[in-house]
Amino acid sequence: MIDLTNEEIRRYSRHLILPEVGMAGQRRIRNTSVLCIGAGGLGSPIALYLAAAGIGRIGIVDFDTVDYSNLQRQIIHAESDVGRPKAESAKESIKAINPNVDVVIHNTRISSENALDLVRPYDIVVDGTDNFPTRYLTNDACVLLGKPNVYGSIFRFEGQASVFAPHQGGPCYRCLYPEPPPPGMVPSCAEGGVLGVLPGIVGCIQATEILKLAIGKGTSLVGRLLLFNALDMKFRELKLRKDPKCPLCGTNPTITALIDYDQFCGIPAEPANPASNPDEVTVEDMKKALENPALGIRVLDVREPDELAIARVAGVPQLPLSVLPQRFVDLDPNVQYYLHCKGGVRSMKALKFLREQGFKYVKSVKGGIGAWSDQIDPNVPKY
Question: What b/e sequence results for 22-47 when a residue is b if at least 16 CB atoms lie within 10 Å of its CB, and e otherwise?
Answer without folding.
Answer: eeebbbbbbbbbbbbbbbbbbbbbbb
